[in-house]
Structures are given as C-alpha cells and as structure tokens.
Specification:
Blueprint (H helix, E strand, L loop, with lengths): L3 E7 L6 H9 L6 E7 L6 H11 L3 E5 L5 H11 L4 E4 L10 H10 L7 E3 L3 E3 L5 E3 L8 E4 L1 H10 L10 E4 H6 L12 H10 L5 E4 L5 E3 L12 H18 L5 H18 L8 H13 L10 H28 L1
Parallel strand pairs: 1-2, 1-4, 2-3, 5-10, 6-11
Antiparallel strand pairs: 4-9, 5-9, 6-7, 8-10
Helix pairs in contact: 5-9, 7-8, 8-9, 8-10
C-alpha cells in the first residue's frame, strides 16, 4: 500500500498537463501512486496520460465519460490505495521537494493525524506568486476540531481548496464520503466540511504544497455562472444550519462565518447576464434571506442597507461601483 494517493482530474488542459505530471513524478519522495482521471477530455489529454503511464508503474489511468470535476475525483477515490489522499487539479503543479516536506510533517506526529492542511502558492499568468499562509504563529501546529474551526474562521483564505489538504483514506471509506457531482464551485467546501466533522486531529503547516494557477482561460475559477453561485449559496446555507443551534463558542462562530460567506456570494450577482438565471438565484436568496440576520461586520451591515433599498442585484451593482471608486 502506498503512503499517498495523488488524484488528478483532467479535462481539456493538454497545455498544462505535462508540467503537472512531471512535477509530481520528479519528487524525491516516491512512495505514492498517481491516479490520472481522464474525464472524457476532447483534446490530447487521454494520450498524454497513457504515454506517461507506459513509462512509470506508479501511474494509474482512468478513462471515463465526461461527468464533471466531482465525478472525476470520485472515480479516483474508487481505486485509491494510499493511506492518505491528495487532490491536485491537472493544470496545477508542485515545486521540488514538496512531497518530502509533506512526509516530514507526518513524521513529526506520534499519532496518525486525520488531516494535514497547507497553504497554496497562488500563481498568476505574469509569473507572480503569492503564498496564502495559514493563521498560525509557527511553522506547524497540531489542533483538535474546535481549535481548527477557530483557525478557519479567522483565516483570510479558505481552508478547503484542492491541493491544500491531505485526507486520511480510512475516514473517507468508513463514512462513504464522495464529492457531490451536482455542485459547481462549492464541491471542495461541501466535502471538506463533512470530512472535518468526522475528525479530531489536524496538523497545520505553513509549507505550500501546490502552485495553484489563477486566471487561466476556461478555468472553473475564472468562469462565473448561475450554477456556481447557486452551489456556493446552497453549501454555505447548509453549513450555516449545521452550526445554527450550537452554543459552544467556537462552533457558534462557524454559524456567523457561513452567514458571511452567503452574503459575500450575493455580491457576485452582477456577473450574471442571463435574466432567467438571475431570477432563479434571486428566488433562492429571498427564500433563505433569514441567514443574513446572523452576519456580523460593518461591511455586511452596509450591504444589507443597500440590498433593502435597491434589491440584491441593484444593491450589489452599486456596492461594486463604490468599491472601485475607493
């Protein structure tokens, strides 16, 4: 059994795929299997996967009908054998010694930790790199669930992005966890939140694992749709309700965290151009608007005044214009 299974969903990224694969195969640590999931890619990605697999027995290739990001990750989960799991998007890549640093983090602990959480290197088309460091005061920190939630709440970055987390496969298998295939733009958060509620030991390190490519043309993070906005609203609302009745301080604050995330997503409405899509999203917000009562912070108080006077879309448009002027 390999120590690590690295699952890479692949669709229409032939320009970036060789760098992704070679950056993984070139690591000094090699006790891993690399699972390449060709999600019915229409370009040369299927051939690229097969060529690399023919030259390295650590590689497994799955060719399947296109089903989306979550479905591709689930296909990788079905065949993974590693003690731990790491998900990397096929247009991202690792720097040298990345896996070696991950393994050193595991070796620091005398217990089998449930999750390793790391920052990403946000990589822009102009070559600029920004590390989204975690809110810890040292290079590493071992936390229980309550303290991990507290760190998540104060972080300026999200904890759940692909490539930031190493999952323990036995927890996923025991609880039959899978990514929800009908979610777009929020599948990472939904899976992450279900997983951490089953865990008690979290090891945070401020060593980045993956170069995460931003603003790539066609990237799911660069395309805003009603499905993406609706997916985020639904996931944030669902998690808000999980913690709504919590009295314990750390978990009660998670309620506010997701109420604020819900409000942040409303600000994306001006990106919707289709009137039918906009109407459907507005209907969902209207039906779930009570969540906004639990937002906290000056900017949310101002936003709620604008939304009350001008509506959710009109208010968000005005807020965007004001933000640009400041």
């Amino acid at each position: 059994m390999p120590f690590l299974s690295i699952i890479v969903p692949i669709y229409n990224i032939e320009k970036y795929l060789p760098q992704c694969i070679e950056s993984i195969l070139g690591q000094s640590f090699n006790d891993f299997e690399l699972i390449l999931v060709d999600d019915g890619s229409p370009d040369n990605c299927p051939n690229i996967c097969d060529q690399y697999a023919a030259s390295d027995n650590r590689i497994k290739v799955i060719h399947k009908k296109n089903g989306g990001l979550s479905d591709a990750r689930n296909a990788g989960l079905d065949v993974a054998l590693g003690k731990y799991l790491l998900f990397i998007d096929g247009d991202d890549y690792m720097k040298e010694l990345t896996l070696e640093k991950i393994i050193q983090a595991f070796k620091r602990n005398i217990i089998d930790i449930d999750m390793l959480i790391c920052p990403l290197i946000k990589t822009y088309p102009n070559g600029q790199e920004i590390i989204d460091y975690l809110p810890i005061n040292s290079e590493h920190q071992l936390l229980d669930q309550n303290n991990m939630l507290a760190k998540m709440i104060i972080s300026r970055t999200t904890f759940w992005g692909a490539g930031k987390n190493v999952y323990r496969r036995s927890i996923i298998e025991k609880n039959k966890l899978q990514f929800k295939f009908d979610l777009i733009g929020a599948e990472d958060c939904e899976f992450f939140m279900r997983y951490i509620r089953l865990c008690q030991s979290f090891f945070l390190i401020n060593t980045p694992v993956v170069n995460y490519r931003l603003e790539r043309e066609g990237s799911i993070t660069n395309v805003m749709s009603s499905s993406a906005i609706m997916g985020q609203l639904q996931v944030f609302y669902d998690n808000y309700h999980v913690y709504k009745s919590e009295k314990q301080n750390e978990k009660a604050q998670v309620k506010t965290f997701f109420a604020n995330k819900f409000a942040n997503t409303i600000s994306l409405l001006p990106y919707l151009r289709n009137k039918v899509d906009l109407r459907n999203v507005l209907g969902f917000i209207q039906s779930h608007k009570h969540i906004l009562n639990d937002t906290r912070g000056r900017k949310y108080s101002i936003a709620k005044i604008f939304w009350l006077i001008f509506g959710y879309n009109g208010g968000s448009i005005l807020l965007q214009k004001i933000k640009k002027l400041l």
